[in-house]
Amino acid sequence: MEKEGWVSHQSPQASSAEQPAAAEPLSWSASMPDPMALPYLNRELSWLDFNSRVLAEAMDERVPLLERLKFLAIFSSNLDEFYMVRVAGLRRRVASGAPAEAPDPLPPLDQLHAIGARVKELLEARRDCLRDTLLPALAKHGVRVVGMNDLTTEEWSAVDHYFESQVFPVLTPLAVDPGHPFPYISNLSLSLAVEVRDPVTGAEHFARVKVPRSLPRWVPVGRKHHFVPLEEVIGANLTALFPGMEVLRWFTFRITRYSDLDLGQMEQPEDLLASIEQQVFQRRFGEVVRLEVQRDMPDGIRSLLLEELGAGEQQEVAPLTEADVHCLDELLELGDFMMFAGIDIPELRDPPFTPRVPDRLRDGRLIFDVIRERDLLVHHPFESFGATVEQFLESAANDPNVLAIKLTLYRTSGDTAIVRALTEAAQRGKQVAVLIELQARFDEQNNIAWARTLESYGIHVAYGLPGLKTHAKTVLVVRRDPDGIRRYVHIGTGNYNSKTARLYTDMGLFTCNPSIGADLSDLFNSLTGVSRQKFYRKLLVAPANLRDRTLELLAREGEHARAGRGGRVIAKMNALVDAPTIAALYAASQAGVKIDLIIRGTCCLRPGLPGVSENIRVRSIIGRYLEHSRIVYVGNAGQPEYYIGSADWMPRNLDRRVEVMVPIEDPALHQQIRGVLETCLRDNRQSWDLQSDGTYERQMPGDEPVRSTHAILMRSPWGIEVSGTSAASAPFPESEPSSAVPDGGGGKRTRSTKGRKRNG
Fold first, then answer.
1. Selected catalytic residue, list 471, 560, 628, 710
2. Is 471 a catalytic residue?
3. Cys bridge to 24: 243, 406, 684, 760, which one at CB 3.0-4.6 A?
4. Ordered strands of the 226-229 beta sheet
């Protein structure tokens, strides 16, 4: 997972099912003065439920086999990041004695206990899925992970040659004894714990051998689609690393370190780029927060690792204990299975998909002429990123009438067309300014490199401010048209990244609306200069006015509902965490507003509570593409308003980031967004409904036709067609509350959490 990831309050010793009923608030009133007293699901456990839905895709027989393995890899990579950031942060809060953060009453230590219990369940499910289902099924199709003992003599000889020529020169055995201290171990690196014996003295020694990341994890053995793990190749040849010694046994292990940037130490640095570089370097030495070991590792070796990691590390928190050890399978680092998703067996993969070129761009007209004619809305990956966003910037770079290009970059990818367009524009003498966010988590080093590359071409590069990430997705092109200077704008929900544009669902608006162009000019001036800009004509900008405007929209819907004018809200985003926004949603629900929330990941709101949130339904959509678009619709008594942009409803997005939401004003574009939202709300194949107790129930088609969001959007980028000229202003079909049982219309649900009680 932005690196997106493809995630019950309880006593420290209690499972979710054992949670005392007294821990759950049963009601909340909009008249209560303190929004921090509202019903609230724990953020960390909600994210783990998201990741369990990702794992469910690996278990789903309807998903092609190699794609199932891909989802298992995504689940594993997601969990790594969760420990590096969220669990590590909780451990620091425990060490500092920090209390629970309202409105979540669960203290950090209790959260860690609850996380540990839930993760144990998920890891066992992952192991069963891999060992009992996926690997045997792949073997039937000729795809196998084999051990060294499974090789023929010829194959063993070939692998030995590969070891001697490619692997052995890279390896460095590191002994642990009075003359050799326990070595530094890098984050997420796979290692061998080796026990050797001196045949002369009989003394036994412990050593560590790192499995190099610079080499492929899966070594081909000669038979098609047969691979042996690199650690097994090394393990079978350890005598080459310890000549004259007797190798007794070896086991794999892996550690996870705290890996977030400590932004609190960067108040007003003299050089932000240098400060970020220093932070990235220091991150390598973050405290260890998790130890993963091979399932059959002896207690003695595991205890040695725990002792050495605790004694040899400069831990800011308590050393690891047995509770922080994950005893897994013989295979660790399962994120590396992502490589298998590229194996060329078409029947085991999703069918290939080619994005469409929007109809209005097919005739070869200059994209500026198309935008000037009417606003253009695009939907990726169902519509081509290259033929829209990249073409927009390439045209701007080559057009002699373009005077300036300004752009925000949060994450980019490789030698992209976008970066090439920016450098070409600068070389042609155009004014080019780029705001690069150096604090984009785990992309800091990449963004630093791009910043220096762009600067070398004479591009004006700004880095934003410490503590205030620039997460907005915006481009401003200033062009001399025949009738004067005009600003052309793209505002999107996703990054300017050609790789993720093929995997994430995102929307983007192209417009030359003068007010939006003027707003974006003001925003860029505030980012590259010195400003306290608060007023914007059309845009909703964080931290200036986005929070207040969002709360106003929700309150207005409540007023409409109380006055008998109806009330309708549909919001789609990645996460809902912000307590004041949740309080406003509860208040709107109590006023009679019908609310549908399409929340892919973390959701702290409890839907379906009588008298509190009975008019709110929450669903999550998980499938072939990562749901990433942020959309807000409010009915506004028959005068609907639609917004798209970069912000989730989280405190960080509303208060600590530069975000942009843009109104979509063309009624023809309303029809398009409406189609996408209706497609999501009617999904019975990829969707999971959040229940009032915090569990998720999977929607199943039953006797109904299958309605899969991504399959529909691949056929038609704007989803279910809405007929009738007044469709844009008509209310969306109202959905059942999330607390309801099967609807009787043929749709069925399955519980993903076995009825576990969740937090309140």
1. 471
2. yes
3. 760
4. 144-145, 226-229, 218-220
